[in-house]
Amino acid sequence: MNSTGHSTGLSLFPPASPCSPYARDPDWATDLARAYNDYVHDHFLTRNARLKAVALLPVQAPRAAAAELRRAIHELGMVGGLLPTPGLNVGYGDPGFDPLYEAAQALGTMLGVHGAARQHGIGVNLDYVGADGGQAFVLAHSFGQMSQFTHMIFGRVFERFPRLKVAFLEAGCGWVPYLIERIDRRTERSGRRLATEQVRDHPVYFHAELAERQVLPLALSVVGEDRLLYASDFPHEPDDEIMEVLEAFLAREDVSQSAKQKILCENIEALYTLKAA
To answer: What is the pTM of this model?
Structure first.
């Protein structure tokens, strides 16, 4: 399971969830999501109160996904739902997802947009990658995030659901300033709201990799301190590497202390609606 660490516990993300949209039978996808969420609740959440979980959702069927999100929050005590980037025939800016967004906004819970190391259905063919997977690692997550973010901006998701909390995860934040500026240049000529305004005015979050050097201060200047957060990606990343990255980040002089506090703690608590210990 991927994880997002915070001061009150550990948020668990479904390990194979980026593959779930490839299921073409909505009923099967719904049963799979329910079974997975029940399993996580029974085997983890009931055993340690510090463990939180993000629900697997049958995004192929948005109304069923909305119902499963409500069940996951109210009955299983989960703290959000996942929006995988690959496998779907439409982007998350499509109005067909509105029932899910309405439910998440009413619940005050987050939706996390998350990619996969190798993925299809994102408009880019990554079958040519080398055996070591290096090209896929560099490109797949970022392409998926950029595609869905752009689709949601042009679909006016954040304008239509102003309290909807969405986090774009596991692609770092280096792509954010570039893409926001590119979208702004397009939208300012049409009189539509700029992407910069939408991100600053609404609870839209981005995963910041603490080792990002030049781009992290730039992203902070574009989206503000309230919009970036840290995720450990444990257990994919070794414990010693996680600690080394954290220590180096805390020693950085090009990131303010207030930004460090928000990235490591406060923004995560706000995203998941958690109370500090």
So the answer is: 0.88
